[in-house]
Prior knowledge:
Blueprint: H1 2-15, E1 19-20, E2 36-39, E3 43-44, E4 51-54, E5 62-66, E6 69-70, E7 78-91, E8 94-106, E9 111-116, E10 119-125, E11 129-139, E12 143-156, E13 166-176, H2 182-203
Antiparallel strand pairs: 1-13, 2-7, 3-6, 4-5, 5-13, 7-12, 8-11, 8-13, 9-10, 9-12
Helix pairs in contact: 1-2
Amino acid sequence: MPLVLLALLAFGATQAGATDLITDGSFASGNLNAWTIGTTSNGTWGAGFPIVSGWPLGGGLNAAQGQVGEVSFDGTQQGGTLTQTFQSTGGAATESLMWAAMGTGNADGGEFTMILNHVVIAQFDTGNINGLLNGTLTASMPTIAGTNTLEIDVTRRYISTGGTPYQWVTGIDVEGNGVPEPGSLVLMGSGVLGLAGVLRRKLGF
C-alpha cells in the first residue's frame, strides 16, 4: 500500500500547476487562425477589421484590432466577437486579457467583455474617450471537465464609421488544468511504475 500511495502522489505531482489553455492568445502568429471571428446580431468589427496589428502600448506585442460598432443604430452594445474552445479536466482557473482603446472626443470608446461557457465573467466599459485608454480584465471562474468556450466581445453603442475609436485585445489567457496528451499519460505511467520499482528495491519489498 505505501508504494501505491507514493506512486499516486508522484503521478499527482506531474499534474500539479496551471497551464495556459488558450492557443495564440497574444496573436504572435500574426493571424487570427486560432480564433473563430464573429459579430453580435447588429454588430461589425469595422470596415477591414479585425486585423492583427501592433499593441498600441508597444513592447513588441501583437493584438487583435477592431473599429467596432453597430451596423444600424439602435443604441445597444454591438460589435465583434472572438471565440475559442479548449479542453480542461476542470477545476480552479484564472482568466485574463489586456485591452486598449483610442479615440478623440468620442462618447464611447468601447466595452470589453470576457465570457466563459456562456457566462459573463469580466467586463469594462470605457465610456467617453479622448486619447488612449488601456487596462486588464481578470476573473477566477472554474472550468468544466471537457470542452470549454471562451468568448471575447468588443462592442459599442454607436454605428461604426471612419471616425470610430479603435480597440485592441491581447494577452488572452486561461490558466487552468489541461488534458494530458495520450503519449504524456503513457510516459507518466511508465515513470510511476519505474519509481515504484526503485522504491521496492530500496525498501526491500
